Amino acid sequence: MACRAPRLPRGGAMALLTDLYQLTMAYGHWRTGRHRLPAAAELFFRCGPFRGTFALAAGLAEALRCLRAFRFSAADVAYLRSVLPSTTEDAFFDYLATLDASEVTVSAVPEGSVIFARVPFLQVKGPLLVVQLLETTLLCLVNYASLVATNAARFRLLAGPDMKLMEIGLRRAQGPDGALSASKYSYIGGFDCTSNVLAGKLYGIPVRGTIAHSFIMSFTSLEEVQPRELLPQAGGEPVDLPSVAESWLRRVCELLQTPLENVNRGELAAFVAYAIAFPHDFQGLLDTYCVRRSGLPNFCAVALALHQLGYRAIGVRLDSGDLARQSKETRQVLQACGAHFQVPWFGTIPIAVSNDISEQSLEEFRREVRELLPGRRPHGFFVMFFCALGPQNPQQHYRLGEEWLESCSQRGTWGGWIMSQQCAQVANEAKGILACISPSVASRDRGG
């Protein structure tokens, strides 16, 4: 049986976004003449999420928007005729066609308020039938929203006021609506920005982004960088940035006592290409190959080349390994370069960390940073989280494909060769698994 993709209304009527038994109970109330009785319902939670003592109330604006638009369209009523028992009287469907929430009143705490177990944070009053019909819809609108906002608030409390928090859960979210909700309610819960461009447009959330391993690994040498020239910030003749960066790389490697031959030139090319494209917003991902032997020297070289032309790099990111130790090492290298080359701002370049950070790992990171950098507040750290709340998410990844990997192997790209070997190993393991399960697997959606 083919399944069509759902098209949910945004900000419009969602009367059918409910459980079937709400409608059968509504018919029961109508059939016995009880549907107009005054009723009141309260929305609360019994236990705090994440085994905590509090939650943040969220989704209330969506709930009010739903109430204002609550009605059954002619198409809705026609569909209900097909799913409710055949004994349902026609007059009930006529009644549903006239129904709205104009007689419903709502009392609620402000969006983002701290709430506690068993204390109502939303109360609905109105005719019994309508109050009954609203139960599932309102719970749907506030439960996930409050969960995400609470999760974000817990991270904010752990991070303190000095660390910046960025939500990057779009790729692991529970569908497009879950992704937008996660971005919106993480922001309400205390995050500073999101990577979700559509959420930024819809909700006015600041949008940020860095750079991915795939971009860095797609380069093999400085010869691939085109165009090569960059105009100085103050004006003048264009400068060949790859040449300036190479000159700075020799000086940085000498300072850090890093053998020049250990530095990955494809990574340097990627940084230079990105810097030419975004001279005011240059940032580097340091752990594609080796943070200390390649990522840091390459970043410092390109950032210093930009500084020579009047530009300022805006940050670095670490995405694997011991984030606290590498953050300390990165900060020390940035400070050493800043002091040695007399660039005072260099030592304060923000450091972003990511890689499935949990409450526990954030707490450990903050504690270790304090121990590694005693007497200093953790300014200049940017922590990135997947906040869509899918702990069993398979965490799929999107990488450059087989043809590209093969070309990298032919060009001698170390990172591409490693990935090609990993893919080959996984393919061999998958053959045995598929042999076991393929006879019993059938598609339920043969319509594509």
From TrEMBL:
Gene Ontology CC terms: cytosol
Residue stretches making up the Nicotinate phosphoribosyltransferase N-terminal domain: 16-143
Keywords: Ligase, Phosphoprotein, Pyridine nucleotide biosynthesis, Transferase
Gene Ontology BP annotations: NAD+ biosynthetic process via the salvage pathway
Catalytic reactions of this protein: 5-phospho-alpha-D-ribose 1-diphosphate + nicotinate + ATP + H2O = nicotinate beta-D-ribonucleotide + ADP + phosphate + diphosphate
Keyword flag Protease: no
UniProt cross-references to InterPro entries, sorted A to Z: Aldolase_TIM, NAPRTase_N, Nic_PRibTrfase-Fam, Nic_PRibTrfase_pncB, Nicotinate_pribotase-like_C
The EC number(s) this enzyme carries: 6.3.4.21
Function: Catalyzes the first step in the biosynthesis of NAD from nicotinic acid, the ATP-dependent synthesis of beta-nicotinate D-ribonucleotide from nicotinate and 5-phospho-D-ribose 1-phosphate. Helps prevent cellular oxidative stress via its role in NAD biosynthesis.
Protein name, UniProt field: Nicotinate phosphoribosyltransferase
Naturally occurring in which organism (per UniProt): Otus sunia (Oriental scops-owl)
Lineage: Eukaryota, Metazoa, Chordata, Craniata, Vertebrata
